[in-house]
Amino acid sequence: MQKFARTMMALTLAFSLGACSGLFGGGDEKGGRLAPRTTAIGVNGYLWQATLDTLSFMPFDRVEPAGGVITTDWHSTADAPNERVKVTIQFVSQDLRSDAIRVSVVRQERETGSSWLTVPVQAATTLQIEEAILSRARQLRIGTEG
Predict the structure, then answer these.
(1) Residue 96 to residues 6, 47, 53, 64, 131: CA-CA distances in angstroms?
(2) Does the global pTM surpass 0.85?
(3) At what angle are helices 123-142 and 45-54 packed, to 10 degrees?
(4) What pLDDT does residue 25 have?
């Protein structure tokens, strides 16, 4: 019985260390690109968590890991109560790359009365959100929380 327990412990340790090889650099590169940290949700785990972290100040309307989409609900600030934004992130690749996500921002302004009018969004706004998500994903990837 003791020999069986030791064998099982050795196998458990071997499997655990084998699973950790991806965390510590083993087999992490694929043709010069960072391999995905694909989770049970089917998208890159770093990008997924980075998106949730980056947009956490906004209420979420739709979070679909299987479909690879995160959509926020409308969000306004106290500084600009007559303006609101909604953000949609689509995950189009499982790789940790800049083209793995597609960011879409809709901005509306309140007209006289209570109706909302969709107005253009500056391209820089979309790029800033994308860069914030990618920066956070890189931080998660290298293990820093800063």
Answers:
(1) 40, 7, 16, 19, 13
(2) no
(3) 120
(4) 40
